[in-house]
Design goal:
The complex is a heterodimer of chains A (about 425) and B (about 375).
Chain A (H helix, E strand, L loop, with lengths): L1 H11 L1 H36 L6 E5 L7 E2 L2 E2 L9 E2 L15 E13 L5 E7 L3 E5 L2 E5 L1 H4 L4 E4 L9 E4 H7 L6 E4 L2 E10 L8 E4 H8 L4 E2 L1 E6 L6 H4 L7 H8 L4 H11 L3 E5 L1 H42 L2 H9 L4 H39 L9 H26 L2 H6 L3
Parallel strand pairs in A: 6-13, 10-12
Antiparallel strand pairs in A: 1-15, 1-16, 2-3, 4-14, 5-6, 5-15, 7-8, 9-12, 10-13, 11-12
Chain B lengths: L7 H10 L3 H14 L1 H36 L6 E5 L9 H9 L4 E12 L4 E7 L1 H7 L4 E2 L9 E5 H7 L5 E6 L2 E12 L7 E5 H8 L5 E5 L4 H14 L3 E5 L1 H43 L1 H9 L4 H39 L9 H25 L3 H5 L3
Helix pairs in contact in B: 2-3, 3-9, 3-11, 3-12, 4-8, 9-12, 11-12
Classes of the chains: A alpha+beta (about 425), B alpha+beta (about 375).
């Protein structure tokens, strides 16, 4: 009889059930989408923050003082120590290699450009294909320095084509496709580069060409690494030497900028890795602000959807006082009446919750694609959690209305005197 | 009702003098008072929806300003350098400060290459330490130099060369020697680590070189910053002004994505809140179908009935919006404090929008059931069918 009552109620009152169901579906959908977005926003914004460029720099351990003013290195190019280019792919073998978005080696040299005289030349990777073990990957300034813009084409790393800085190109009247003499050798200008920095007055060339100009194959002056990191906390700031072994493990296995720096140092012999504080320190604050904001907004969304669901349930039950009156008049106890309504509510919550979860997952995916151009994945673990909350909220919304409906005198209810 | 001593005729006579509107108002007020529970729950739904909408709109507008402030921690977004390598003319800094306004920072830097006592070259910079403290917050400094002369901030790498044990060291530039005391070390992970920083006054007395670079942290939207750059270029032809593209593009990108996420969240939340109002109000009006039927049976015209329910919805919407606005502003201020440690400025410009939206939702949700009920004979409703 109990099952039949519930079944018939769904069969005969399609409109009302549909209304309540829609409210639950929408509420759960919005809640799911917001939870998914809020849990993923940290990772998404972290990737966007990589637009600021590298947050780590690796230099030779025994380096001479850097004589750089306004981005121009005044130190004689032959002076100081170098890293070995052959060591670079080893970065892929570090513990946190998945967090390393890209890296670019830099080798500043000077060269004679004929008409304009001696000019700084910067050797680097543009998008160089490298192999580590069986893994193939590409890295270079196109990943680590996204604000560098090229008119014309980026050169291929395996050619000797060059990029001319914007100001230099304007001064000498060079355009993409022209040919320039560097130390007496002709090179094709594949594009004109604009960075808003010192490179606008330089020539940017593939690393191998700069090494050839310097006469030191495999030399790299410094290496910029762009990594996804976790905002710094008290543990991150501690000196690893003073940590207990468990603490050290935890520190080593957390993608703090410090622990990634330590791992880079281990991977590349005779190197010193340092965080670039301007980038590394600030991304933590920006990230935590945005995450905090999304958390609070998600709470607001959960609150609003809980309210919408419970309001819809309360209304649906309030409309059915007549039914309650009839059941009571036929001798049903308040517990069995409540049981029927709560069973209906549970069923509605499960159906609406499932539909809402699916809809919310789609919505989150849509948000991810349209805003961040990447997928927002929903953990399946979330499903029972969301469903449980949906049932609880539906119960909560119904309970007060059921109590009122049961208390109401059946005589009045049946006579329709509300 | 009237006291027994007064005859019904006098009551009728007295009431007929009154303007007709009093009955309308009375019906509105009594409807709300007699069903306090239902009216209160409808109002509550309205208040919550309006509050959520207010908080979201306030945050949406204000968060951009708040986040821009956070992004200024990345330091200068405009750099001005001298074109000819002669140093910027005297008075440039004052002009720059005038143009960018008091909410922005402008800090001068001058550079030379000096020699240590054992002949090593090192870059020495002169700057305004008070300005740098605010501009470059990521500088990790053990101790800033004091007010007096002769104290220097030494980069971590430079320290190992010039003053391995801390303390005193000498630098020479073009035959002039300067005695300095290291006040502390500086660590940034970039070129600053290899430099030695002096106060601008010490630096100029020693070298006679004027500042060659001014780093500017201008606040405002990208359009405002472009305008500032234009103004600076026009006012100071001796310098080359350029945006720091790394900073500008990073900020534009992160801010844009955050705004878009916030916008979608705001729409979703406001839609959910509106749904809540809709279901509550529809229930409320349906519930009162008997009132509707009686009014109709007593000869109320369609127009009057629609007007009555519309006025009720409008009143509910307005009152709900006003209370909700106050609550929502409170919520936004709290979120601002909790997350950004700065209060959110209240924007009264959203109030008309909130009221209009609330009234619109209330009207839709009360007129929809009325249009359904209109088709039904009053007798059917009164019989409880």
């Amino acid at each position: 009889m109990f099952l039949r009552l519930v079944y018939e109620s769904f069969r005969r009152q399609k409109r009302r059930k549909l209304l309540a169901g829609i409210a639950i579906t929408m509420g759960v959908g919005v809640a799911t989408a917001m939870i998914a977005v809020a849990t993923d926003i940290g990772d998404k914004i972290n990737r966007e923050l990589r637009t600021y460029g590298a947050n780590l720099v690796v230099t030779p351990q025994e380096d001479t003082l850097n004589l750089e003013i306004g981005g121009v290195d005044l130190r004689p190019p032959s002076d100081g120590a170098y890293l070995d280019e052959a060591d670079l792919p080893k970065i892929r073998g570090t513990f946190w290699h998945h967090n390393i978005v890209g890296f670019s080696p830099m080798l500043p040299v000077n060269a004679d450009l004929g008409a304009v005289g001696s000019v700084p030349v910067l050797g680097t990777y543009f998008s160089k294909g490298l192999t580590f073990g069986k893994e193939q990957f590409a890295t270079g300034v196109r990943i680590t320095h996204p604000w560098w813009k090229v008119r014309g084409d980026w050169p291929d790393d395996n050619t000797t084509d060059v990029l001319i800085g914007e100001h230099l190109a304007n001064k000498a009247g060079w355009n993409p496709g022209d040919s320039v003499q560097i130390n007496g050798q002709a090179h094709r200008v594949s594009g004109v580069i604009s960075t808003g920095g010192a490179e606008d007055n330089e020539v940017v060339v593939p690393l191998a060409l700069a090494q050839q100009i310097l006469g030191k194959p495999g030399a790299v002056r410094r290496l910029y690494v762009s990594a996804l990191t976790k905002p710094e906390d008290a543990l991150a700031r501690r000196d690893p030497k003073t940590m207990t072994p468990e603490m050290y493990d935890r520190w080593y296995c957390t993608p703090y900028v410090q622990s990634i720096a330590a791992q880079l140092q281990e991977a590349i012999p005779h190197s010193h890795a340092e965080q670039i504080r301007q980038v590394a320190q600030n991304e933590g604050t920006v990230l935590s602000r945005i995450q905090g904001l999304m958390l609070l907004i998600t709470l607001a969304a959960l609150f609003a959807s809980a309210l919408a669901v419970s309001a819809a349930m309360a209304t649906a039950i309030y409309e059915r006082r007549g039914e309650v009156g009839l059941m009571r008049a036929l001798g049903a106890g308040s517990i069995s009446v409540a049981a029927i309504f709560l069973a209906e509510a549970t069923l509605l919550a499960l159906l609406g919750g499932t539909a809402g979860f699916a809809g919310g997952a789609l919505l989150a995916g849509q948000i991810g694609r349209s805003i961040f151009n990447s997928q927002i994945s929903i953990q399946p673990v979330l499903f029972p959690f969301v469903l449980g909350i949906a049932v609880l909220v539906t119960f909560g919304g119904s309970a007060a209305a059921i109590r009122r409906a049961v208390k109401f005198d059946p005589v009045f209810a049946l006579r329709g005197e509300a | 009702m009237s006291a027994p001593s007064v005859s019904p005729h006098t009551v009728v006579a007295r009431r007929s003098d009154r303007p007709h509107t009093s009955m309308f108002v009375r019906m509105l007020i009594r409807a709300a008072l007699l069903r306090r529970g239902r009216a209160a729950s409808a109002l509550l739904a309205m208040v919550v929806a309006a509050a959520v909408a207010t908080a979201m709109l306030n945050l949406y507008v204000d968060v951009q300003a708040k986040l821009r402030k956070e992004f200024r921690n990345y330091g200068a977004n405009i750099v001005m350098v001298d074109k000819e390598g002669q140093g910027l003319p005297a008075g440039t800094l004052e002009t720059v400060r005038q143009i960018v306004g008091p909410s922005s920072l402008a800090v001068p830097f001058s550079y030379v290459v000096a020699r240590t006592t054992d002949g090593q070259s090192v870059v020495v910079a002169g700057t305004d330490f008070e300005g740098v403290k605010k501009l470059d917050r990521w500088w990790s400094v053990t101790a800033w130099p004091g007010q007096g002369t002769g104290s220097a901030l030494v980069g971590a790498k430079a320290a190992s060369v010039v003053a391995p044990n801390g303390g005193r060291f000498d630098l020479s530039f073009k035959g002039h020697t300067l005695h300095l005391v290291s006040s502390g070390t500086l660590k940034t992970g970039a070129a600053e680590d290899s430099r030695i920083y002096l106060s601008l006054a010490d630096f100029e007395n020693w070298t006679g070189v004027r500042p060659s670079t001014i780093e500017i942290a201008a606040s405002g939207s990208p359009e405002e910053i472009s305008a500032t750059i234009q103004k600076l270029t026009q006012a100071l032809p001796s310098g080359e002004v350029r945006p720091v593209r790394q900073i500008m593009e990073g900020e534009a990108r992160v801010l844009g994505k955050t705004r878009a996420t916030l916008f979608i969240s705001a729409i979703l939340i406001i839609a959910t809140a509106a749904l809540c109002v809709l279901s509550t109000l529809i229930g409320w009006v349906f519930d009162r179908r008997r009132d509707f039927a009686i009014m109709k049976a007593l000869g109320g015209s369609e127009r009057l009935l629609n007007g009555f329910f519309a006025a009720e919805a409008a009143a509910l919407g307005t009152v709900g919006a006003l209370i909700g606005f106050a609550v929502g502003v409170g919520a936004a201020v709290w979120i601002g404090r909790a997350n950004f440690h700065a209060p959110v400025t209240v924007r009264f410009t959203v109030l008309p929008w909130i009221i209009a939206g609330s009234v619109a939702v209330a009207l839709i949700s009360s007129l929809f059931p009325i249009s359904l009920l209109r088709r039904v004979q009053p007798a059917m409703i009164l019989r409880g069918e």
